[in-house]
Amino acid sequence: MAKHDWKIEFITFVIRAKMTKITSIRRFQERDRKFVLALSPRLAEVAELAWHTDSVVQKMQDDYINAMLDQTSVPQAIFVAENNKEALGFIHVGAHQDGISGETCGTVSLLAVSPKSQGMGIGLLLMKAAEVWAKEQGYRLLHLEVFANNVKGHGFYQNLGFKAETLHMIKPL
Questions:
Q1: Distance of alpha carbon 97 from alpha carbon 104, whole angstroms
Q2: CA 4, CA 9: separation in Å to the nearest integer?
Q3: Which option is the CATH number for 15-159: 1.10.238.10, 3.40.630.30, 3.20.20.80, 1.10.10.10?
C-alpha cells in the first residue's frame, strides 16, 4: 500500500451515513481544538468511577486531551469527522509499545463523537481511519483502552474485532 503524506493530503473516506449525509474524515487542524476540548466532559462522563470525584475525572480527561493535542514526540495522528464543515467526532491514534511482545503498535487513545452524531457510523469511520494510519506505519496490532464501565464502548470495540488482553483492576481502601 502506498504511504500517504499526511501533512499535505487529507485522507477522505466518503460514505452515505444515515439521513443521507456525506461525512468526510480529515486531519486535525488547529481550528478543531475547541471542538475536541468540548467533548471532554462526555469522555469523562462515561468513566463512571465511583471512587474518584467527577472533578478529578474531568481534570484527568482535560489534561489528557491537552497533552494529546500538544504531543509531537511520537508518531501520531488526530482525525476529525465532519459534514458540511461541521465537526462530528475525532480520534487520536499514535504509537504504543505492546505490553506482551514489546513491539511497536498503534493505539487509539481517544475516540469521541458528539452526542447528536451518535449512531450515524461516525465512530466506525474514525476507527477505519485509525486502522489505515496504523497499517501505513507498518504496525501489526492496534491497541486501545476503554473504561470498564463504558459498556457501550466495549460492545462497539468488540464488534470491530477487539478482544480483551489484560484487565486493570483497582480497589478503593
A1: 5
A2: 7
A3: 3.40.630.30
Specify whether the CB–CB gap between 101 and 140 falls below 8 A.
no
Query: CA-CA distance, 145 to 154, in Å (whole number)?
Result: 10
Residue 91's SS3 state is strand
Q: How far apart are CA 88 and CA 154, in angstroms?
A: 21
pTM over 0.90: no
* 129-164 burial code (b ≥16 CB/10 A, e <16): bbbbbbebbebeebbbebeeebeebeebbeeeebee
Residue 8's SS3 state is: coil
Contact 107, 98 (CB under 8 A): no
Q: What is the pLDDT of residues 83-124, one digit of tens each?
A: 999 999 999 999 999 988 999 999 999 999 999 999 999 999
Question: Which has the closest alpha carbon to 77: 19, 149, 5?
Answer: 5
Find, among 168, 38, 11, the residue nearest to 112 by Cα: 38
